[in-house]
């Protein structure tokens, strides 16, 4: 999976969760740890090459001393925010679950879109599937995408075939308008669309 430029944040959950009973310092650390987990090679885990990231390294990257890190982490663990694998890798249950769901939706969307018998006729349904297939990442710039672009514009004869559709951020989609990617100078982030 490519690097995601953004992730879902659930303010309601944060406020309801036991995390909000932690000190602000501990909450701040958890937020910084989440940012590291977001950039991790294994999404949602503080791992590097299958092993836990050393505490010194986490502390440094979160901007605190090892002592601060250990005491705030103990507070977070008492409140049940982080989980650990048997190997001791710290992870966020929420992020891991979200990543699994994204992958499941993506697999399902790919399967449906590759089967001509199953491709829906309604634009809404196709659009939804394309966004899942492309993980809501703009195929032109990699930003968060919530629109779907016709690579060859409809006004130029482009159809609703999945191969002619790509998730696009609003900026790329609206700036492209009824031109082809080549005409606007867009480059595809993934070869499969080229
Ligand atoms: Zn874009």
Q: If you had to describe this structure to a student in words, what would you say it looks like?
A:
- With 194 residues, this protein is mainly α.
- The chain folds into two domains: 11-91, Orthogonal Bundle (Arc Repressor Mutant, subunit A), CATH 1.10.10; 99-188, no CATH class.
- It is built from eight helices and six strands, in the order H-H-E-E-H-H-E-E-H-H-E-E-H-H.
- The strands form three sheets. A two-stranded antiparallel ribbon has the order 1-2.
- Helix 2 (24-39) crosses helix 4 and helix 3 (55-62) packs across helix 4 (66-78).
- Bound molecules: zinc ion.
- Zinc ion binds at residues 138, 140-141, 143, 168-169, 171-172.
Rg, nearest Å: 21 Å
Domain count: the total is: 2
First-to-last CA distance: 18 Å
Strands of the biggest beta sheet: in what spatial order?
1-2
Secondary structure layout:
Layout: H1 11-16, H2 24-39, E1 47-48, E2 51-52, H3 55-62, H4 66-78, E3 83-84, E4 90-91, H5 93-113, H6 123-133, E5 147-150, E6 165-168, H7 170-176, H8 181-184
Helix pairs in contact: 2-4, 3-4, 5-6
Quick summary:
By secondary structure, this protein is mainly alpha-helical. The protein is built from eight helices and six strands, in the order ααββααββααββαα. The protein has helices at 11-16, 24-39, 55-62, 66-78, 93-113, 123-133, 170-176, 181-184; strands at 47-48, 51-52, 83-84, 90-91, 147-150, 165-168.
Keywords summarizing the entry:
two-stranded antiparallel ribbon, binds zinc ion, mainly alpha, elongated, 8 helices, 2 domains, Arc Repressor Mutant, subunit A, single chain, 6 strands, 8% strand, 194 residues, two-stranded antiparallel sheet
């Amino acid at each position: 999976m490519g690097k995601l430029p953004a992730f879902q944040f659930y303010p309601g959950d944060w406020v309801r969760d036991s995390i909000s009973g932690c000190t602000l310092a501990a909450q701040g650390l958890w937020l910084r740890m989440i940012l590291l987990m977001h950039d991790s090679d294994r999404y949602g885990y503080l791992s590097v090459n299958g092993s836990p990231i050393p505490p010194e390294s986490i502390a440094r990257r979160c901007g605190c001393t090892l002592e601060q890190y250990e005491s705030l982490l103990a507070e977070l663990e008492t409140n049940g925010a982080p989980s650990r694998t048997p190997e001791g890798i710290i992870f966020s249950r929420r992020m891991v679950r979200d990543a699994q769901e994204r992958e499941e939706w993506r697999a399902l969307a790919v399967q449906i879109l590759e089967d001509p018998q199953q491709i829906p006729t309604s634009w809404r349904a196709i659009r939804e599937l394309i966004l899942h297939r492309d993980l809501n990442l703009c195929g032109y710039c990699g930003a968060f995408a919530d629109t779907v672009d016709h690579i060859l514009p409809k006004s130029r004869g482009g159809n609703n075939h999945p191969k002619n559709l790509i998730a696009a951020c609003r900026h790329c989609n609206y700036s492209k308008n009824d031109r082809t990617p080549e005409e606007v100078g867009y480059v595809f982030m993934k070869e499969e669309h080229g």
